[in-house]
Amino acid sequence: MDKEELIRTIHNEQEEYKKKLDEYNTLLKERDQQLMYMTEQLSSQKQQRFGRSTEASTSLIQQMDLFNEAEATVDSHKVINEPSAEQVVKGYVRKKKGKRADDLKGLPVKRIDLRLSEEELKEKFPDGYKELPEEIFSRLHFVPARLINIEYHVHVYRAVKGRGIERADRPADLLKRSLVTPSLLAGILNYKYVNSLPLNRIEQEFKRNGFNLNREVMCSWVIRCTERDLSLIHDRMKEEMMKSHCLHADETPVNVQKDGRPAGSKSYFWVYRTEAQLEKKTNDIILYEYQKTRNAEHPQQFLQRFRGVLMTDAFSGYHTLDRNSDDITVQNCWVHARRPFSNVIKAKADKQDMSIAQEAYDRITELFNIERPLKEMPAEERLKKRQELMKPKVDELFQWAREQLNVVLPKSETGKGLSYLLNQEKYLRVFLDDPLVPMTNNTCEQGLRIVTIGRKNFMTIDTISGAQSSAICYSIAETAKANGLSPYAYFCYVLTELPKHMDDKDLKFLDGLMPWDPDMKEHIYQNQEAIKAITAVSQ
Asked: Are 284 and 272 in contact (CB under 8 A)?
């Protein structure tokens, strides 16, 4: 082999070696990326299972152990001041003299006189005594659930001459030939849809207090009164909701056993809520709807009379509305856009990804900080500030996200977060041009909490009728709470009034039964006083 041939052979071997080295380096890089991805996934899953659920980057709030709530809430070394009776009843500190009677007038009072016997007085004051003004103090006692049998005697009159017979007026029955009254059904609805107790636990609670009230009977009362009476309230609330400019929407799965499908099939509760914070003339309404599936046709059907902006997450079913309707525009939630980066930070993933995720998180959080003081401004001024202060930062955020997308692994959590941000850009920008549209869907997600708590307690819903009734009852209870009413007292009032109008063809009377009616609190107070008067006499 001559010199030139030897050089060519060595050169070819070097090229072959370099080619193989490049292949090995590429393979090693791919393995490193896979390992990095798997490590990130493991860290993320550990965080989701064992870490804090809050998205705050720094927080002193600890996840409270429900079994240690008292100890976690109260510092054992701190002196706790006992509340006065008026603080418990009214929720504020009495500041002026002479207000005690006003503060306590809504609370039933039982007077107990503590006296010395005549023998004791003679022993202590042999020369006689004079009684001074009494010392008065209050203590609050709790009375468990109790039932009172109200026995109505309808007096019947007959003319002395002739055949005329007259009967005294009797209150309208909630259900004919049924023992149930508005106060009893309101208590059951409050237990189930406000306190999230399943009917079997309510049955046990009644039984422990000496009353045998079967859960099947209670279920029948709930479904029948919901379908006949409370559905009218729900439908009237929906009419009012459709007048809003901006609505929130979300959904959550539930398990309905007897819906004609195989066991384990998912059903859904959809929730819709008005934007009463920015759209200040709008009433605060929260409505729930049961559907078998998560199909886009369900919100399309529910919102067929709605014209405005729909605040949602990135579920494609909502985007179908935006594409198919000229009357509905979709705004995506910025909290959902920030969430992937929050998960990366909490999971303590790769340093490079951590740095990018932290910057994305900080940029979006800055938008929230700018928006916070704008909520109290008039709409015109809010729009101007959003254009001046927020639009440039939103433009910078999306430009920066495009640049960073080429740096991170596409399948990493940071890569997914950046892709999500860019794919939803159209739907995330809507709020910049509409001052009545919020940045987040948080208020709607809060409306789903009561359903998720109930889902954990109830485990399953037995029938479709039960699911539909539950949606209506949740709607009325949550709307009452949103308007500052006691759900129990509101249920009690409307269930008292609705049977009086069963023969009415004109449904205008429903306007006076809405929870935002300016006289509603007074109506409820009078209704509760009437119930107290009846039960006090029966005692």
From this structure: no
Q: Which residues contact 367 (CB under 8 A, 6 or more apart)?
A: 334, 390, 393, 394, 397, 439
Instruction: Return the structure tokens found at 122.
Output: 């003679």
Beta pairing, strands 256-258 & 461-463: parallel
Cα distance between residue 468 and residue 141, in whole Å:
38
User: 463: part of which helix (H) or strand (E)?
Assistant: strand 461-463
Number of neighbours of residue 231 by Cβ within 10 angstroms? 16
Segment-wise mean pLDDT, segments of 10 residues, the chain, 539 residues: 78 83 78 65 64 54 42 49 54 49 61 88 88 81 75 85 83 85 93 92 88 89 93 96 95 88 87 91 93 92 94 90 90 93 77 82 95 92 96 96 88 89 95 95 90 83 90 96 94 94 88 94 90 69
Rounded to the nearest 10°, the torsion over CA 381, 382, 385, 387 is -110
pLDDT at 95: 47
CB environment 334-359: b (16+ within 10 A), e (fewer): bbbbbbbbbbbbbbebbeebbebbbe
Q: For residues 93 and 79, give the distance between their C-alpha atoms in angstroms, rounded to a whole number.
A: 18
Chain position carrying tokens 């509409």: 434
Which H or E element spans position 362? helix 351-371
Distances (CA, A) of 349 to 40, 59, 478: 5, 20, 40
Residue 163: per-residue pLDDT: 78
Write the CA distances from 249 to 112, 283, 368, 453, 468, integer angstroms.
Answer: 54, 16, 20, 19, 18
Q: Can you tell me whether residue 247 is helix, strand or coil?
A: strand
For residue 130, give the DSSP letter.
-
E strands, 198-238, are none
What is the model's pLDDT at position 94?
Answer: 45
Query: What pLDDT, on a 0 to 100 scale, did the predictor assign at position 26?
Result: 79
| Residues 485, 479: Cα–Cα separation, whole Å | 9
Q: Within a 10 A sphere around the Cβ of 493, how many other Cβ atoms?
A: 25
